[in-house]
């Protein structure tokens, strides 16, 4: 049914009015206009189905003198809403009686917002002198070009998205029951179909008769007339390209995590005769494993498998389960050859099918089934090898091999009079080559011809009775191959001459060579922009927004669904281990257990291991041109060996940019939860031309939570922090995944790598401060800390407290900082930073380094607990339907009618409904809330980040800071630091939760470790790889409060109180020197008691060369803060809510660990304090070098287990300068740890 399109300018409105006979004066009209957007900026349109008498047609004007053939839907481009209509089409004919198909030849887009694009600007030829033709390019020009290329089809009287078999089984012609695998304009028209489903049945039928809505497929439809036994017949070929994994040749390969494959085509051959209708279905699709082709593709196929076997298997199972559900038994015809990358791909394909059949056999054995019909059968045929030199006749050898299977799979036959099936097709053949184009089309043509001939023989129709039927059949299949090839590769199919005529000539060879050259250019240089247009059509771009149809009831349902989120979603916690290591081109030569098992006490075991490498190969010119992947394979094998000693981990993705590499392992039991794994590499070396510096990013979805990991190697050089800032911005802005997704679109982002930020002090100063263990002064001059403070880099990210020694640069295979001629300045070059999304919870468990000597760097690692969410789509859809009908019933009862037109409601209703659903400001903009929390977290971790004593200095001002200047500034420093702490938000390492302030402690239980676990300090378990002593983990406010005296406490004996508080006080930071007694007398009694207890519990050194175990100041580091700190610390504990009013919602109890000992026959349980590795020594003389060498196995134990003092076990304190701590006792910072040297043997 044809319609005219009209528009009204004020207010803007567009209508579709059907062309009707003169005696029908009041037809139904479909009206469109833009509605006011909601507070959350969702695009909304008012759509109404009216009688013509309800509008004044004189207010409207025709937009096009030519009739339209229905609308494809609504879409948003920037701030404009467009209505897409078919303005030209061509009739293919009737596939069956009353089943007509049309090819779309032209599509126009009309704005619902303004009249700027009403006249067809694409055809405009006259321009003023000062006007540019580019100013008049329609925003939808590329979409118009794609939809008008002659490869889209529709039908007005049957569902073209379904096969003949599916249409007979469904017994329904409702447009809402389309097959979503093949409906290409689903994103545009889905809301209009929902609008249609809410109408009365009579209006639905009349709306369909008017042809207002068009359901389009992409592929090929061809029809030819024929004579069979002197009777008229028709033969048709219908190929439908799936829209689930659609794209161009080199941009879309293999399978995705949902089991959809690239270039998946369902082809149906239909023979319509007077008495019966014959149908036979075949499918083609890319090899269903994760593979890709990177770089410029010329003659050879450089095929790369992008995921491991175990991580691929779940997707393969989903793919074939879907095929079995749709078509029955599956038989694979694999046409891959034995050359180049095809052999690798074929071997992987065969292995996945073998594993799939083994699982099917196990299921059948469990169910006591003997039949093997459910197994996937595979036939391999090296087409290029057997049919080389144009001997395509040899392809018939394949038919002989599969003849028995072809006969058993049968075909569909439908009685033309009763429209009932006589027999069904029992299975389907799935054919593939690399592109699933040329070779595939030849073989599918032969199979279709063989089965059709078999059917004609069964109904006793001989070759003399069919006339030119098979020549018509060959023509249709040749056209089908050309059409599918143009869609996927940009040119017609190769070998098409043989498909048409059954023979090959020199003309055909020349044409194939020309097509190959055209493919090379199109696929390598034009397909990327075409891919973006396809993604825009399918709504896969990140900025794609579906146009909603205004319905007050829908807005009410949306509000209720937000309140009932927990009913169709499930939250869970996962643990992620992240580690970064600059390898300096070295191979593994010692155990990786101290690194990969650093947080082994945290339960559960990590769900993901994310490992970043830098300089995995030596950065030589030849490596920059082509990086050798062999070293990465060796490191992958070593990590795999270490992780799978006691657990089962599989590799998810591994990618390398010259020397920078990123590898992700997943626990085998959670692989099925990971989907949409993608990678991007960004070069920053030599202005973005070389990959010696740059980044590798991998993103994935864990259930419905998106996570991105970035490992980077930034510019080197002591004073090149501006280059490093520039590299960060280049990477942050340049990492763009498929569909336009960038870093800001992810729920969590974790950066790890060698960022190369140095310490802006002289080499002598840095080494002296390391010797003094003065971390405050070092961090004060740390370039990354300062650049974050100035807002020049990593502005949205958080870094945990740095409590470990600088990781760069060491002498090879030693614990000594660089003693070479260059004497490089030590620095924290290796870092890990992260950010959340402001909606979900994130907690950093630990942040430290491992003592591996493979490289001149030390590896750094961190552990995170992340909250993930999973939506139950079926439950969500069911709840939506139930709520809608529930509210419809309530409204109908209140109004006494069920036919109320809700589209007449004012647009203000939309805004009001949406606004009331957002009860908190945090939900409106979670990213801003994350940035606010992240700023507070950074203030606590590094109090230098706020506007401190540097004032308005530039970066150059702190390149060198001498002692006198720092001494002058130190007077103000302590006041600024304390002010920053008082104003700070929750520190890193605690649970960050923006919304659930009043939740019970149930969610926190997921974070808690096993407090009853007994972990001896020196366990030698031969069944596990050597595991380093666990790093200390952040304590919580409750632990600290329970350990310190309250304001009402009285002055009790130090010894008794100390014994009670011993377990909890062990992680407390070291204290500054004791203040004079005169000052102590002026503080409250509870504070005096606290100070006395502090002084009574100074840590001792054991195993010291001097054998000095007395309680002196040798084991206590001098602190850069003033001595009044313990007085203020204790005083703050007397106040309530001194850190945050809702701080309990941000805290989660950290794991603690115990050990059991026997003393005098009595079992005693005590908490394990952290163990501290002695600081790196500076080589000043040969005597010092020998002294260090003799004491490499010295272990400093701060548990002070000596029995010489009654208070020796009451408190353990770190030997490192503490980070700034909130004065109210909310948390305890991370303590650096290192196990005994015996655990680090190669």
Description:
By secondary structure, this protein is α+β, with helices and mostly antiparallel strands. Among the domains are: 3-119 and 138-538, no CATH class; 571-874, Deoxyribonuclease I, Chain A (4-Layer Sandwich). 31% of the residues lie in helices and 21% in strands. Strands 6, 7, 8, 9, 10, 11, 12, 13, 16, 17, 18, 19 and 20 form a 13-stranded mixed beta sheet that branches. The protein has a six-stranded mixed beta sheet with strand order 5-1-2-3-4-21, covered by helices on one side. Strands 24-25-23-22-32-31 form a six-stranded mixed beta sheet. It is globular and about 100 Å long. 43% of the residues are buried. This is phosphoinositide 5-phosphatase. Its EC number is 3.1.3.36. Belongs to the synaptojanin family.
């Amino acid at each position: 049914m044809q319609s005219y399109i009209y528009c009204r300018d004020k207010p803007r409105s567009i209508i579709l009015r059907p062309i009707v006979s003169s005696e029908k004066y009041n037809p139904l009209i479909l009206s469109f206009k833009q509605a006011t957007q909601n507070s959350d900026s969702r695009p909304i349109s008012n759509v109404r189905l009216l009688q013509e008498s309800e509008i004044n047609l004189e207010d409207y004007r025709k937009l096009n003198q030519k009739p339209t053939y229905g609308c494809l839907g609504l879409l948003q481009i920037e701030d404009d809403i467009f209505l897409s209509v078919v303005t030209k089409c061509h009739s293919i004919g009737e596939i069956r009686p009353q089943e007509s198909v049309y090819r779309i030849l032209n599509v126009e887009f009309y704005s619902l917002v303004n009249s700027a694009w009403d006249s067809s600007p694409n055809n405009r030829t006259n321009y003023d002198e000062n006007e540019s033709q580019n100013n008049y390019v329609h925003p939808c020009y590329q979409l118009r070009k794609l939809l008008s290329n002659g490869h889209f089809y529709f039908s007005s009287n049957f569902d073209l998205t379904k096969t003949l078999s599916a249409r007979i089984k469904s017994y329904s012609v409702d447009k809402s029951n389309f097959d979503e695998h093949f409906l290409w304009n689903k994103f545009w028209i889905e809301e209009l179909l929902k609008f249609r489903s809410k109408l009365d049945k009579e209006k639905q039928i009349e709306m369909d008769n008017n042809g207002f809505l068009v359901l389009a497929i992409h592929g090929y439809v061809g029809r030819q007339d024929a004579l069979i036994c002197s009777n008229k017949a028709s033969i048709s070929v219908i190929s439908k390209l799936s829209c689930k994994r659609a794209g161009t040749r080199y941009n879309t390969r293999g399978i995705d995590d949902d089991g959809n494959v690239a270039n998946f085509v369902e082809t149906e051959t239909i023979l319509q005769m007077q008495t019966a209708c014959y149908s036979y279905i075949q499918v083609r699709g890319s090899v269903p494993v994760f593979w890709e082709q990177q770089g410029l593709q010329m003659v050879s196929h450089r095929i790369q498998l992008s995921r491991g076997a175990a991580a691929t298997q779940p997707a393969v199972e989903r793919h074939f389960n879907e095929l079995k559900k749709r078509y029955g038994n599956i038989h694979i015809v694999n046409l891959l050859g034995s050359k180049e990358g095809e052999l690798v791909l074929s071997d992987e394909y065969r292995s996945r099918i073998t594993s799939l059949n083994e699982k099917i056999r196990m299921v059948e054995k469990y169910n006591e089934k003997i039949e093997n019909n459910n197994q996937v059968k595979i036939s391999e045929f090296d087409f290029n090898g057997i049919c080389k030199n144009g001997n395509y006749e040899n392809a018939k050898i394949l038919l002989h091999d599969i003849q028995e299977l072809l006969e058993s799979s049968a075909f569909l036959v439908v009685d033309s009079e009763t429209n009932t099936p006589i027999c069904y097709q029992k299975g389907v053949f799935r054919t593939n080559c690399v592109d699933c184009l040329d070779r595939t089309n030849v073989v599918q043509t032969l199979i279709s011809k063989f089965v059709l001939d078999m059917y004609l023989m069964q109904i006793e129709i001989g070759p003399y009775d069919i006339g030119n039927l098979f020549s018509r059949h060959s023509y249709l299949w040749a056209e089908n191959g050309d059409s599918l090839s143009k869609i996927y590769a940009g040119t017609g199919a190769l070998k098409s001459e043989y498909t048409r005529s059954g023979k090959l000539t020199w003309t055909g060879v020349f044409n194939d060579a020309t097509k190959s050259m055209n493919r090379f250019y199109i696929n390598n240089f034009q397909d990327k922009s075409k891919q973006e247009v396809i993604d825009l059509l399918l709504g896969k771009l990140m900025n794609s927004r579906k146009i909603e149809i205004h319905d007050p009831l829908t807005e009410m349902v949306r509000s209720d669904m937000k309140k009932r989120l927990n009913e169709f979603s499930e939250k869970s916690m996962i643990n992620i281990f992240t580690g970064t290591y600059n390898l300096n081109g070295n191979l593994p030569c010692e155990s990786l257990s101290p690194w990969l098992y650093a947080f082994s006490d945290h339960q559960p075991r990590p769900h993901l291991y994310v490992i970043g490498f830098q300089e995995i190969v030596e950065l030589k010119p030849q490596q920059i041109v082509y990086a050798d992947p062999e070293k990465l394979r060796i490191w992958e094998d070593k990590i795999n060996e270490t992780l799978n000693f006691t657990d089962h981990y599989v590799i998810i993705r591994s990618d390398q940019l010259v020397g920078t590499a990123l590898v992700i392992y997943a626990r085998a039991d959670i692989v099925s939860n990971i989907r949409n794994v993608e990678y991007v590499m960004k070069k920053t070396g030599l202005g973005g031309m070389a990959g010696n510096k740059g980044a590798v990013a991998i993103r994935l979805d864990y259930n419905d939570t998106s996570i991105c990991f970035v490992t980077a190697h930034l510019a080197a050089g002591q004073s090149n922090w501006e280059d490093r800032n520039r590299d960060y911005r280049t990477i942050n802005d340049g990492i763009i995944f498929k569909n336009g997704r960038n870093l800001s679109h992810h729920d969590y982002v974790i950066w790890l790598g060698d960022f190369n930020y140095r310490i802006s002090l002289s080499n002598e100063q840095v080494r002296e401060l390391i010797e003094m263990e003065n971390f405050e002064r070092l961090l004060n001059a740390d370039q990354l800390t300062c650049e974050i403070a100035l807002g020049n880099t990593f502005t949205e990210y958080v870094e945990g407290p740095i409590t470990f020694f600088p990781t760069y640069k060491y002498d090879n295979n030693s614990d000594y900082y660089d003693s070479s001629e260059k004497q490089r300045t030590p620095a924290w070059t290796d870092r890990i930073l992260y950010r959340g999304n402001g909606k979900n919870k994130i907690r950093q468990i630990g942040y430290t380094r491992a003592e591996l000597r493979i490289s001149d760097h030390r590896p750094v690692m961190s552990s995170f607990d992340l909250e993930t969410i999973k939506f139950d789509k079926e439950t969500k859809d069911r709840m939506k339907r139930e709520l809608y009908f529930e509210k419809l019933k309530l409204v109908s009862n209140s109004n006494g009618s069920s036919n109320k037109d809700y589209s007449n409601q004012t647009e203000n209703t939309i805004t009001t409904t949406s606004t009331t659903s957002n009860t908190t400001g945090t939900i409106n903009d979670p990213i801003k809330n994350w940035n606010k929390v992240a700023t507070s977290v950074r203030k606590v971790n590094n109090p230098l980040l706020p506007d401190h004593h540097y004032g308005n200095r530039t970066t150059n001002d702190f390149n060198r800071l001498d002692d006198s200047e720092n001494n002058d500034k130190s007077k103000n420093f302590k006041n600024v630091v304390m002010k920053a702490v008082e104003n700070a938000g929750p520190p890193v390492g605690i649970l960050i939760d923006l919304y659930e302030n009043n939740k019970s402690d149930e969610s926190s239980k997921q974070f808690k470790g096993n407090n009853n676990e007994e972990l001896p300090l020196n366990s030698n378990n031969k069944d596990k790889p050597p595991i380093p002593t666990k790093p200390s983990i952040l304590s919580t406010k409750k632990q600290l409060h329970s350990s310190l005296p309250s304001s009402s406490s009285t002055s009790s004996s130090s010894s008794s109180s100390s014994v009670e508080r011993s377990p909890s006080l062990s992680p407390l930071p070291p204290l500054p020197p004791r203040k004079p007694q005169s000052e102590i007398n002026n503080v409250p009694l509870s504070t005096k008691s606290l100070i006395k207890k502090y002084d009574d519990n100074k840590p001792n050194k054991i195993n010291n060369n001097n054998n000095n175990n007395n309680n002196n100041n040798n084991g206590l580091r001098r602190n850069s803060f003033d001595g009044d700190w313990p007085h203020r610390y204790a005083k703050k504990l007397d106040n309530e809510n001194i850190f945050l009013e809702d701080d309990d919602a941000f805290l989660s109890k950290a794991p603690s660990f115990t050990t059991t000992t026997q003393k005098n026959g009595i079992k005693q349980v005590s908490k394990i304090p952290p163990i501290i590795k002695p600081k790196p020594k500076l080589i000043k003389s040969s005597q010092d070098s020998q002294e260090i060498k003799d004491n490499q196995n010295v272990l400093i134990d701060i548990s002070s287990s000596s029995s010489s003092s009654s208070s020796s076990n009451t408190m353990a304190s770190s030997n490192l300068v503490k980070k700034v701590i909130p004065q109210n006792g909310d948390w305890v910072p991370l303590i650096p740890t290192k196990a005994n040297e015996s655990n680090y043997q190669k």
